[in-house]
Amino acid sequence: MMKRGILLGIFIAILIIMTGCSTDTEKREQAKQISQVEQETTAPDIPVKIVGGNGQQLRLRDIYIDKPVFLNFWASWCPPCVKEMPHIDALYKKYGDKINFVVINVDSNEGDVKAFLQKNSFEMPIYRGDLNSISEAYHVNAIPVSFIIDSRGKIISQHAGGMSEREMEKFLGPIL
């Protein structure tokens, strides 16, 4: 009887471990999955401000006027967002002459992003945007999330979740 109880306990433990692992694996795969957005979807035009700038408000359409855009929404309190920032900056240094990098912070407190940027030195411009209007316009329900917008203002690809530099470079492939 005791042997049967031990075997049942081991079976339940293995079942729980296997279920948990498959759930984590599925979540990782969903986060890494690069999905194609419906072709010819026009990128919503949202207002943004350059962090540390003169407070002047820009429109996204003014940024993608001359070249395609890598658009990323992030926050300083989001570990996957923070982890991919150096990768974005490295690719900005490598491809900034071919692609506009629009990295939009959605922290509710501008002081948080300024403190983060003081601790980290990035060459890429950092913008701020309103999380509510961004969520509504781009249907963002998690960050980080990245989009590729062509020079006509059409969304051609999106990726939800953090990326390594290699994954990010592959993601940029259609506009390189």
Automatic annotation (TrEMBL):
Localization recorded for this chain is: Cell envelope
Primary location: other
Question: InterPro entries from the entry?
Answer: Redoxin (IPR013740), Thioredoxin-like_sf (IPR036249), Thioredoxin_CS (IPR017937), Thioredoxin_domain (IPR013766), Thioredoxin_ResA/DsbE_sf (IPR050553)
Pfam families per the UniProt record, alphabetical? Redoxin
Domain Thioredoxin, which positions?
37-176
Q: Which UniProt keywords apply?
A: Cytochrome c-type biogenesis, Isomerase
Instruction: List, in alphabetical order, the GO biological process terms annotated in this UniProt record.
Output: cytochrome complex assembly
Q: Which GO terms describe its cellular component?
A: cell envelope
The name of this protein is Thiol-disulfide isomerase or thioredoxin
What is the species of this protein? Answer: Megasphaera paucivorans
